[in-house]
Input
Amino acid sequence: MKRVGLSREKVLQAALDLVDREGVAALSMRKLGRELGVEAMTLYYYVPNKDAVLDGLVERTLADVEVRPEGPWREWARRFAGSFRAALLAHPALLPLLATRPVSTPGGLDTLERAAQALVKEGFDASEALHVITTVATFVIGQVLAEAGRTPGHDEPEPVPDFDAERHPVLAQALAGGLGTPEDHRDRFDFALDALLAGLRPRQGP
Amino acid sequence: MKRVGLSREKVLQAALDLVDREGVAALSMRKLGRELGVEAMTLYYYVPNKDAVLDGLVERTLADVEVRPEGPWREWARRFAGSFRAALLAHPALLPLLATRPVSTPGGLDTLERAAQALVKEGFDASEALHVITTVATFVIGQVLAEAGRTPGHDEPEPVPDFDAERHPVLAQALAGGLGTPEDHRDRFDFALDALLAGLRPRQGP
DNA sequence: AACCCCTCTCTTACGGCGTAAGACGATTAT
DNA sequence: ATAATCGTCTTACGCCGTAAGAGAGGGGTT
Output
């Protein structure tokens, strides 16, 4: 019954490592405990339940995303999108979680509010502003899903299972280059993002 | 030990009903069996395992999406996006699954190939074509996630938990109208989709 | 009729899961 | 030294997915 010097942060860190390594599906309280040299129930001293661990991972990851709504909105939106993308790519195993948890922490709401206010100053009305934000955010999630797509339990970006190059010549050609380097992905991301941002504007006004 | 007249289709239908009603997390083989008046193990005669049930649900839902790459590409892309959106909205509980399973069924690949070929005729090269397709598809997923967003186990679109209208005036105003009618959502969807499509074009050519 | 065989369903069992309840050492405060 | 608090462990319950195989019921062949 030696004390191990645990803390909520250490629990979350170990959980993040485990999830990065083996996927969300592989995270269990017992395994997480084993990882930390402790029985499963001990974790409940630091965390109310397993869902709180998952929420903690999401919050932690989102905390790295910088949102500074200053200057021309398309520019800070682009910076936000880039930083969001980087955060997601750093922990792609979390995507299934992130994609389905609405922003609801106090910090998240504050950030949301600041961005919305900045957009209102640009001539968007309140609900347009919110829509712009969710559109950009979900766009990023979607792009990263496509870029790093992986099934929850199954980590490797499969080389496409049953696939006949004769039957699917264009796909075959597109996949031939291995879908491109990280730079290619970044280029395509920026390109599509610009396309989206260019089209988003207040219904009336500049 | 009366025979019940089951079939893979009936199993999937019951699973879909259950998931629509209670969420993905609530789907268990035992419960699904109960639903069908049968012991859990009986299901394994029709389906190799639980993952196959989930895959079946996704495939079934995707089968309703029409893709007819004919005429101007932006027009059929718009039709595709609309039909995809409708299919997702019909079963929002499946979103967490759909968002993380790559297209890999033979039918899905054929459809993908046809769309890619049509885009190549418009001047996109092969990998650009694939990117356009995934961009539009993930855009739709993202929009529907935002529109119908719900956590796996927890079905109701929460009225936002802890939230102080003083602290978040713009958000409060945006949410005041209940975020809008289905038509509002459709309008915003179409608006953002047009913004995106307008910006997507072959790197060289018309 | 009797037989067999195939199709379908059930029983039992195992190892894992999340977590409620509470016992019990170890540390700290008094 | 005694008491309070903290951190950890033990035990237990009811779920889960599914492996293995037993057995019931009906159809086809003799």
Observations:
- Confidence is low (pLDDT under 50) at residues 151-159 of chain A.
- Residues 166 and 172 of chain A are 8 Å apart (CA to CA).
